[in-house]
């Protein structure tokens, strides 16, 4: 019998937790097989197969979970990424320790439509790639265990098969017009959970405190999972403060186990507050006891007061806090959406180390791991549903949006880090339907706004870039891309003031621009001379294209790290003098893949991140650090710029990004003076020097001080004075080999053999032999098709301890080879 998957969460406690926890949960990461196509039916996944028989095809591959169908093809420069059905299968040893207990499969996220089978029985379907959901397989397992094949074919194990499908579907959100891949696969953790017959479905803990932090209030309600219809139970609740002290306890007899039940209401004088600097959390422990056993778990909560002041800034716990933010897509080189917990932890810590105190999760509900880290690190959150671009579909479309909003709010209700529920993004962007009716979009936006406030009255609602809906939500972010899609970055403050005046509460999310990692420029702002300034900096239709339209940096600029650091530098110094500003969020933290940008320097990549898709930091990371962090740091611009150029004797600017009070620069061992940091002295907050480089090798060192603390940085590079013409030839050399991996570098030269340091030719790497190109990573050094950066490009080769011949071809230039 088919059952629709229940949208509830079992609060998971892993084996690493204390043994006092009653329920058991295991991540199902290993022993999976995967098929990147559809089957003729579920029987093909479970039928007995003899080696070499026709039934052995199609062939399955062994994978671990999490796993994304589009781990590599999302950035393959030669194909459209796969959108269609895929299958996963495994065999489980079911050993539920509870008498009449329930066996649950808990999906933390799978894209985008999912079907779950136990042997040949479909037990659940789910639509939506980002919310959590569960499947009770207890009855299906019991029925299968009575069949002869349970022991004969499967040797006492239970076959579980899962079909995912990310096929294009106009009646689903997000739209395929969105600037990110709609991935397929079981790309978040899948857990096997055993619970007693009565357990907690959801626990809602509403923690409130006044702005002065004097009076705290906690209201707890619960929803139970009670498939066998138990009538009575007792719940024991305990609140423990951040230092481990028991603050209060409660015992409540329950005679109604259906629906949401009020469990506890208490007041706390002067609770310890959660903040971005001190993210203190309380623990709410609970023990649900019935005649069938005990279910124990806990949630973490935080007391904080939030206030987006009308026509003003943002206050946390009664004090102004400038939201210093960025964005996150769930995407990583070689894994796409299937990021491990370790990867997620690394990414979130990198953000915190950059000085981030706010994040917008674009553009969908994200992993519980992300939210837990935001809670513990002190990062405030805007989380949103993926109603993104395309217009508004029919009732099926709208019901999915309602479900995803409900699931997101209920599943992440207790996180103190969350301050905003996002209802949509760029809903002024048509294209999926013949009709684009603004009034119908407004009507549905109003419905979602009401639903959000009904589900959670303690948080704000927001959207980005849909001016005709700006008055509906609590907080609005217009589209301001000063210096990229429109205007110059010096327009930023004026445009922001104009937009601020139009809405009740203003928050600027999404700003910045693309940069091709390792590409640098001696004159990065040259293209600004072509740009019309002093008008709206809103992104408009077609602005993201590299073809046609008005002059704009996104099309006419050099996409260098040099330009983007200037743009970011200007924005950050301006934000320090905008007392009415609630905050902003740079778009995004990390480069991510997108199907709508095939012509970018790394094909199919949005390259606006301050780190590459593999966590390699770009220069921009350190600009943010210099404004947003307190731990003393210093960074000389140009660590990935091996050759600078100019005239002999010409003075060239060296920029230093630091949060220290002063810095002294040295060129080839000689001091060129000390400068004081002044955030309003653009660029580099006054820490810039014009230095006379020597032809050939140069060394630049900086010593920065704050009080008695000293930090240093150093770079080495060559200075080229020879002029070049157009590229006519290439060289391909091995510049490193380590652990059976060779690093290759191609360089472009003119007819006279002078390196062409501004060349941006397309490079196409190839390999024949025993090894494999390490490509399809979506990075500047991990793509077989890539634009050159300063007349060069890099690729790595896994040699497999064999013989290989690598090649590079570029239109109009003779192809070159190297034997490895």
From TrEMBL:
Ranges where the Glycoside hydrolase family 2 catalytic domain occurs: 309-512
Domain Glycoside hydrolase family 2 immunoglobulin-like beta-sandwich: residue ranges: 200-304
Source species: Pedobacter lithocola
Keyword Protein biosynthesis attached: no
A molecular function GO annotation: hydrolase activity
Pfam families: DUF4982 (PF16355), Glyco_hydro_2 (PF00703), Glyco_hydro_2_C (PF02836), Glyco_hydro_2_N (PF02837)
Family, as annotated: Belongs to the glycosyl hydrolase 2 family.
Keywords: Glycosidase, Hydrolase
Residue ranges constituting the DUF4982 domain according to the UniProt record: 649-710
PANTHER family: BETA-GALACTOSIDASE, BETA-MANNOSIDASE
Protein name according to UniProt: Glycoside hydrolase family 2 TIM barrel-domain containing protein
Domain (Glycosyl hydrolases family 2 sugar binding): residue spans on this chain: 57-196
């Amino acid at each position: 019998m088919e059952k629709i998957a229940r949208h509830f969460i079992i609060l998971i406690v892993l084996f690493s937790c204390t043994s006092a926890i009653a329920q058991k949960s295991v991540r199902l990461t290993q022993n999976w097989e995967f098929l990147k196509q559809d089957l003729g039916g579920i029987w093909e996944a479970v039928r007995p197969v003899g080696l070499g028989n026709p039934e052995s095809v199609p062939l399955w591959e062994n994978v671990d979970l999490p796993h994304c169908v589009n781990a590599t093809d999302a950035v393959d420069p030669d194909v459209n990424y796969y959108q269609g059905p895929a299958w996963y299968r495994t065999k489980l040893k079911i050993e539920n320790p509870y008498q009449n207990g329930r066996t649950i499969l808990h999906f933390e996220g799978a894209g985008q439509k999912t079907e779950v089978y136990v042997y040949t029985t479909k037990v659940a379907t789910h639509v939506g790639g980002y919310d959590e959901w569960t499947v009770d397989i207890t009855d299906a397992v019991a029925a299968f265990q009575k069949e002869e094949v349970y022991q004969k074919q499967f040797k006492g194990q239970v076959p579980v098969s899962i079909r995912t499908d990310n096929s294009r579907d106009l009646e689903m959100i997000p739209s395929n017009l969105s600037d990110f891949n709609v991935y397929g696969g079981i790309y978040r953790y899948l857990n096997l959970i055993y619970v007693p017959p009565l357990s907690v479905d959801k626990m809602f803990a509403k923690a409130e405190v006044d702005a002065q932090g004097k009076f705290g209030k906690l209201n707890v309600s619960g929803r139970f999972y009670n498939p066998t219809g138990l009538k009575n139970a007792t719940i024991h609740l305990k609140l423990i403060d951040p230092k481990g002290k028991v603050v209060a306890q409660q015992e409540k007899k329950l005679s109604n186990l259906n629906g949401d039940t009020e469990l506890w209401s208490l007041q706390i004088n002067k609770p310890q507050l959660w903040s971005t600097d001190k993210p203190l959390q309380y623990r709410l422990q609970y023990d649900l006891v019935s005649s069938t056993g005990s279910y124990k778990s806990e949630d973490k909560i935080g007391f904080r007061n939030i206030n987006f002041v009308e026509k003003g800034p943002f206050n946390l716990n009664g004090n102004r806090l400038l939201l210093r933010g960025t964005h996150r897509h769930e995407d990583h080189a070689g894994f796409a959406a299937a990021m491990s917990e370790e990867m997620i932890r690394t990414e979130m810590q990198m953000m915190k180390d950059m000085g981030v105190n706010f994040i917008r999760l674009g553009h969908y509900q994200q992993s519980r791991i992300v939210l837990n880290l935001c809670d513990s690190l002190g990062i405030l959150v805007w989380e949103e549903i993926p109603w993104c671009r395309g217009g508004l579909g029919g009732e099926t479309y709208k019901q999915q949006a309602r479900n995803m909003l409900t699931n997101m709010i209920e599943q992440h209700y207790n996180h103190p880090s969350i301050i905003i529920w996002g209802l949509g993004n760029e809903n002024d962007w048509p294209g999926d339907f013949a009709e684009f009716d603004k009034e119908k979009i407004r009507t549905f936006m109003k419905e979602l706004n009401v639903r959000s406030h009904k589900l959670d009255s303690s948080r704000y609602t927001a959207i980005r870039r849909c001016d005709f809906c700006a008055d509906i939500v609590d907080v609005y972010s217009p589209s301001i891309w000063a210096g990229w899609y429109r205007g110059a970055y010096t327009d930023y403050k004026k445009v922001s003031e104009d937009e601020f005046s139009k809405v009740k509460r203003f928050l600027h999310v999404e700003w910045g621009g693309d940069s091709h990692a390792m590409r640098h420029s001696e004159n990065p702002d040259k293209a600004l001379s072509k740009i019309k300034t002093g008008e709206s900096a809103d992104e408009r239709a077609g602005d993201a294209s590299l073809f046609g339209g008005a002059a704009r940096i996104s099309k006419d600029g050099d996409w260098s790290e040099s330009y983007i650091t200037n743009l970011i530098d200007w924005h950050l110094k301006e934000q320090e003098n905008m007392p009415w500003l609630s905050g902003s969020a740079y778009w995004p933290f990390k480069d991510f893949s997108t199907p709508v940008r095939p012509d970018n320097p790394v094909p199919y990549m949005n390259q606006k991140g301050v780190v590459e898709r593999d966590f390699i930091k770009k220069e921009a990371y350190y600009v943010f650090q210099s404004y947003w962090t307190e731990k003393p740091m210093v960074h000389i611009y140009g660590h990935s710029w091996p050759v600078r150029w100019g005239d002999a004797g010409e003075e060239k600017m060296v920029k230093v990004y630091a949060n220290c009070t002063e810095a002294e620069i040295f060129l080839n061992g000689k001091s060129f003076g000390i400068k004081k940091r002044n955030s309003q002295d653009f660029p580099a907050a006054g820490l810039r020097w014009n230095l006379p480089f020597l032809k050939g090798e140069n060394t630049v060192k900086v010593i920065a001080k704050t009080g008695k603390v000293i930090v240093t940085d150093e770079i080495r590079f060559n200075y080229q004075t020879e002029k070049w013409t157009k590229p006519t030839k290439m060289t391909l050399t091995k510049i490193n080999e380590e652990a059976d991996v060779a690093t290759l570098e191609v360089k472009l030269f003119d007819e006279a053999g002078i390196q062409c340091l501004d060349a941006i030719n397309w490079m196409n790497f190839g390999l024949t032999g025993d090894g494999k190109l390490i490509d399809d990573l979506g990075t500047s050094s991990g793509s077989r098709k890539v634009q050159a950066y300063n007349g060069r490009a890099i690729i790595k080769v896994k040699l497999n301890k064999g013989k290989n011949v690598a090649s590079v071809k570029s239109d109009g230039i003779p192809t070159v080879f190297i034997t490895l």
